[in-house]
Amino acid sequence: MIYKDFRAKNPARVQGKPIWVMRSIRIQVSQIRREGLTAVVRKAWIFLRLAPDLPGALMAIPIVAFVRLLSPFLKIRFGPIRSPN
Question: Residue 24, Cβ neighbours under 10 Å: how many?
Answer without folding.
Answer: 12
